[in-house]
Amino acid sequence: MRLNEIEIGAAVDRCFFLMPAEKLARSLIGKVLARQTPFGIIAAEIIEAEAYLDGIDESSHSFPGLTARNAPMFEEGGCIYVYQIYGVHHCVNIVADAAGIGAAVLIRAARPIAGIDIMSVRRPGKEIRDLCKGPGNLAKAFSFTKEDNFKRVNSSDILIHEGFDRRGMISVSERIGITKSTDLKLRFFMAGSKYISGRPSLNGHIQ
DNA sequence: AACATGATCAACT
DNA sequence: GTTGATCATGTTT
Question: How far apart are CA A108 and CA A25, in angstroms?
Answer without folding.
Answer: 11
